[in-house]
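Researcher: Hi, I'm a grad student and pretty new to this. My advisor asked me to get structures for two proteins we've been looking at. I'm not sure of the right format, so I'll just paste the first sequence and hope you can take it from there.
Model: That works fine. Here's the first sequence with its structure tokens right after it:
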Amino acid sequence: MKVTWATLIGRPYAARMTRPALLLSLALLPLLASCAPLASLLTPREGGPAPRTAGPLTVGQTWTVSGTVEGSAVSSTVAVPDLISGAGGTATVGGLDQAEAFSRGRPGFSVATYDGDRRVLSFEWIGTNGERYTCRVDTLLSLPYSGRLTRVQGGNVAGGSCQASVSQP
């Protein structure tokens, strides 16, 4: 039995397919194959969209901030459950929540803020006795970030140094 193109692809199609059209389609095959990597880049990732970020802050992270003020060691863990844009940059909580927590001196409350215009990262938290700590990082070169630590308690202000690093990506 003799095998012809008509036998392989069916008579009606083979009758319409001309030799130049067949050669053209075979010549375009490598070109179509080269589009495959681009197509794979354009398809959505399996895990869905990338988490929201603001500078070094990414939703889902947990930061460990530690430092010393007047010889006393202090530390806090700051979670990034969400990022909210507002005055002064992007923060992990809204401005009203932050103002309410700091005005009441709610122990354990913490917030991370990134000011993209000034490229400044700040971590603020309230200690167990109502003292307010701020770790301000002006230079975002390499982890752990180093900055200035300020403690405000009553009318007293004390300074020191602090470090911040991602403890859970």
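Researcher: Oh nice, that was easy. Here's the second one.
Model: And its structure:
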Amino acid sequence: MKYKLQYFLTLILLSTVSNVKAQTNSKIDVWLTNRDKSALFTRQDKQLQFGSATNDNPVIKVDDKQTYQSMVGFGFALTGGSAMHIINMNAGSRLKLLQEVFGTKGNDIGVSYLRLSIGSSDLNDHVFSYDDLPDGETDINMDKFDLGPDKKDVIPVMKEILALNPSIKILGSPWSPPKWMKTNNDTRGGRLKPEYYAAYAKYFVKYIKQMKAKGITIDAITVQNEPLHPGNNPSLLLTGPEEKDFIKYNLGPAFKAAGIQTKILIYDHNADRPDYPITILDDPQAAKYIDGSAFHLYGGSVDAFTQVHNAHPDKNIYFTEQMVVQFHDTSRMIISEPVGTIIIGATRNWCRNVLEWNLAAGPDFKPYTDRGGCSMCQGAVTIDGNSYSKNIAYYSMAHISKFVRPGSVRIASNDLESLPNVAFTTPGNKKVLIVANENNKPQTFTISYHGKNASATLEGKAVATFVW
């Protein structure tokens, strides 16, 4: 009888502990951004509460038993122009900015993935590659390869970022090979001459090794930024068959021979041409070197990412660029659009990351290159000397980067037409739900999880991240 009594007391104690834990986990933290800027990625004082009440409002049901892709990180492009502005800040101002962007405490937004340009992008103050030569000269063995201008800004800034987050993932993307490798001997447009495919593969190997020597590990590279848009300066036209052959016969074997583990990603352009990566991945001799496909969303529909995933489910999908800007009516912030379309749209369609374009620019959007540089690329932050202000890209990225840490896994949630949403389980077993209200008017809805319900309301065009 004594032991039975102890047994039942133990059961009661365990039940009490379980109920306490359930009550603890029934609270939902809310981080909110409103259209009128009354909240800008602001943690709300009042938590939501899971309970048993039901109502007739739309329901977002979160189901952690159904899982999808794991996430590798979220962030921005650290262009040469971004790095130039950041390195020119005084040490105190620079540390404050980098802490807010890459830190994870308080209101820091915890950026965990960056894209660097291999050579210059169109957001540098001048065009360069790492092997620029006088006309008529070549360097097929890359004897004159040098990281050059990046040593002044990109590399020093990256070292300070790595001090804050040593595990940050880094993607490298070229806008153009050295012009001596190209059919038009120009930084803009042209095509890569087949006789220089092997030399260009060595160029990538040199880049990865020299960055590693500086303490910067390149996790992945794309073969060419926007290969079907030769109008930027710098840029290159690289067709699907050309990219396939370059990887199959040159880049893949060069990485293998050099023992390089850096992932190779293909395409790195808009969603209107899913046939480009699919055709490359259809070739098993090329596909064996490829980790996945990279996309932008200036054209096409986000569900094209799922089309590519379904064609080759063994390969990953990445979202590597989208400009997120708002110039007019600065009294408001229509954040539901980039969050609903890009953050939610990309991750619901198998993307393992989301990168926005770009981290920082000046008040005049400079620097950018002549003959095709972007003169309207607003940064996530605008840097003016030692001061900076945060723009719509910063806040839209914050709603996912702070909470959906690398290693998080997307879980199921039903998508409502006017309330696009996406849900995750974090490595710490937190649940994260991001919801955008695409209506102009407030919407009240129910969050349903494990049979419990919580009621939430979002103002028109607002976004919230719910964490429990």
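Researcher: Is there anything I should tell my advisor about the second?
Model: You could mention this: The radius of gyration is 24 Å.
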